[in-house]
Write a structure and sequence with these properties.
9 helices; peroxidase; CMD-like; oxidoreductase; 2 domains; Alkylhydroperoxidase family enzyme, contains CxxC motif; Single alpha-helices involved in coiled-coils or other helix-helix interfaces
């Protein structure tokens, strides 16, 4: 049983009602993550705002998927991986790219590999990003705006992956993509993400 309540519009705090309605407008239903997150109207509002800003960032759909899915894997959040695999595919990202991200293979373009590598640097930097990582990323054809937008995307996903670790958020049926990959991977206890294939 979850520590948090899976809210509906009827049960959520008053300040979260409009926020959950926006989830319905965007997805057609209230994703479980949003239902749990709505316990704190402030957190849900901050998360949704960060999401909207990242959507409008300098990164394209493939690149946003790299940041989101990589953060989900490294933070050990099964919900994030599955939800953003679904979102990426429905936004036109090739299934082969999504599968390569999930399986942590090198079957990606050099640009996406570089982005994944930098995203991991941001995830584990503990607030102090190494200058070598910055210089390498910029030398690979990315802009300073791209760099800062990665920070935004990782920050957004940190909010949700921590929330999901507290709630034990169940995967929404509509987010499941069993034809792509049975993403039921287990997680290392040291807090790092795990390659799903290591636990099949």
């Amino acid at each position: 049983m979850s520590l948090l309540t899976l809210h509906t519009i009827a049960t959520t705090p008053e300040k979260s009602k409009k926020l959950l309605q926006s989830s319905i407008d965007d997805f057609g239903w209230i994703p479980n993550q949003s239902g749990y997150m709505s316990e704190s109207p402030s957190l849900l509002a901050a998360y949704q705002r960060a999401h909207d800003l990242f959507i409008d960032s300098s990164l394209n759909e493939e690149e946003k998927a790299v940041v989101w899915i990589t953060t989900g894997i490294e933070n050990g959040c099964n919900y994030t991986v599955q939800a953003h695999a679904y979102i990426a595919i429905h936004n036109g990202v090739d299934k082969k790219t999504v599968k390569a991200l999930i399986e942590k293979t090198n079957d990606l373009s050099p640009r996406l590999l570089a982005l994944r590598e930098f995203t991991i640097e941001v995830i584990y930097c503990r607030g102090q990003l190494k200058r070598d990582a910055i210089d390498l990323f910029l030398s690979r054809g990315f802009s300073k705006q791209n760099m800062l937008d990665v920070v935004l995307g990782v920050s957004q996903k940190n909010m949700s992956t921590i929330l999901n670790s507290i709630a034990g958020t169940e995967i929404d049926d509509k987010f499941k993509l069993d034809d792509l990959y049975p993403m039921d991977f287990k997680l290392h206890r040291d807090g790092k993400g795990a390659n799903p294939r290591e636990h099949r």
